[in-house]
Amino acid sequence: MATRLRPSSKRCAVIGGSGFLGRHLVERLVDKGYTVTVFDIRQSYTIPGVTFHQGDLCDKQALLKALQDVLLVFHCASPAPGSDDRALFHRVNIDGTRTVIEACQEAGVQRLVLTSSASVVFEGTDIKNGKEDLPYAKKPIDYYTETKIQQEKLVLNACSKERGFLTVAIRPHGIFGPRDPQLVPILVDTARRGKMKFIIGDGSNLVDFTFVENVVHGHILAAECLKAESPLCGQAYHITNDEPVRFWDFMSQVLVGLGYDAPRYHLPYWLVYGIAVLLWFLTLLLRPLVAIKPTFTPMRVALAGTHHYYSCARAKRDMGYQPVVSLKEAITRTVESYPHLRRDVLKGAKS
Ligand SMILES: NC(=O)C1=CN([C@@H]2O[C@H](COP(=O)(O)OP(=O)(O)OC[C@H]3O[C@@H](n4cnc5c(N)ncnc54)[C@H](OP(=O)(O)O)[C@@H]3O)[C@@H](O)[C@H]2O)C=CC1
Ligand SMILES: CC(C)=CCC[C@@H](C)[C@H]1CC[C@H]2C3=C(CC[C@]12C)[C@@]1(C)CCC(=O)C[C@@H]1CC3
Known about the structure:
- With about 350 residues, the chain is of the alpha/beta class.
- The protein has a domain at about 10-180 and about 210-245 and about 310-325: NAD(P)-binding Rossmann-like Domain (Rossmann fold), CATH 3.40.50.720.
- Helix content is about 40%, strand content about 15%.
- The chain has helices spanning about 20-30, 60-65, 85-105, 145-155, 185-190, 210-225, 245-255, 270-285, 300-305, 315-320, 325-335, 345-350, and strands spanning about 10-15, 35-40, 50-55, 70-75, 110-115, 125-130, 165-170, 175, 200, 205, 210, 235-240, 245, 265, 310.
- The strands form five sheets. The protein has a seven-stranded parallel beta sheet with strand order 3-2-1-4-5-7-12, with helices on both faces. The protein has a two-stranded parallel ribbon with strand order 6-15.
- α1 crosses α6 and α8 runs antiparallel to α9.
- The protein starts with 10 loop residues before the first strand and ends with a helix.
- The mean pLDDT is about 95.
- The ligand CC(C)=CCC[C@@H](C)[C@H]1CC[C@H]2C3=C(CC[C@]12C)[C@@]1(C)CCC(=O)C[C@@H]1CC3 binds near residues 186, 300 and 303.
- Pathway: Steroid biosynthesis; zymosterol biosynthesis; zymosterol from lanosterol: step 4/6.
- It is an enzyme of class 1 (oxidoreductase).
- Its main location: endoplasmic reticulum.
- Its EC number is 1.1.1.170.
- This is Sterol-4-alpha-carboxylate 3-dehydrogenase, decarboxylating.
């Protein structure tokens, strides 16, 4: 007679495990001896021992198949923040997250760790050493932020010690590192089109950029500390590098590391923001005729020209979090991981 083994606490599923953060998380979990199942709309790699389930997280039946015998779930799937598709954000981040919660509860999952974002409190104005008790943004700066807020509320409100279903949300900020499809590639593309000459504002604004391995470390610590008697239940935690840096110094270090010039000329913040808003309206008006994707969206200008850095004191206190990779080492490793984006290599490929 076949005997069914009891699900192990080292068995977990990563929803969004094919993405940038998700894949780093999967790799670390495997290193730590976890048995990992990935659920994602696409499969972008293979790792021996990791099981892949390709499907849409809005499909409960597909999720239920992937969550069999799983006690711990990481949910780090989301449409890309750069997409301007409100219906898609709503469907995946809000309706889809509701489906994830229901599927977890039906499958007997005990712990759910959500990747939220520190931007849930960002309204486009300065945040200095922001704590988790800041109110959610009343006027979210884009559809991404609007739906990340709803997503986080859904997950935290689902936490129930009575039902044995515990939840926690990790709020990283400005994740970067090897294989990131956003920050470095967009930066290099902007520089190659000659648009990275200008500093928006006076250049003194401090920002958190968080190395992906620190974000992964925060997620795993949260999962391992999430117990019925722990303070983590139903709470949100900032996870950063704990080394706020001037936005334009960070950008310059990455650009110079890859052989591009650092931005030098200053432009007034409100002028650039105003132009970005005008361009955004224009793209909306022209959308039926042409699809334009402006580089400087109001969101990016706000992120580039304001202070936005967060305290991770709560994560230090409740889960003993400390960044495992310093900002200096993280930038070096990131720059080294993009040899194909170096100016000399791209120039050579063109000629
Ligand atoms: N990058 C950053 O700076 C920050 C990110 N975050 C959060 O971290 C998480 C991970 O981000 P990141 O790794 O950068 O993003 P990625 O886009 O690299 O990863 C997300 C993954 O989820 C997949 N996915 C999207 N929609 C669905 C769906 N309906 N069903 C199943 N899978 C789906 C994506 O597939 P596909 O690529 O095909 O869409 C992708 O593989 C997100 O929740 C994001 O909001 C928070 C703070 C900062
Ligand atoms: C001004 C300019 C063109 C800069 C290029 C870099 C930007 C693409 C990044 C700088 C800050 C980044 C960031 C995010 C995406 C990439 C940047 C805009 C997020 C919006 C990703 C999703 C989040 O949850 C918050 C991030 C904040 C920082």
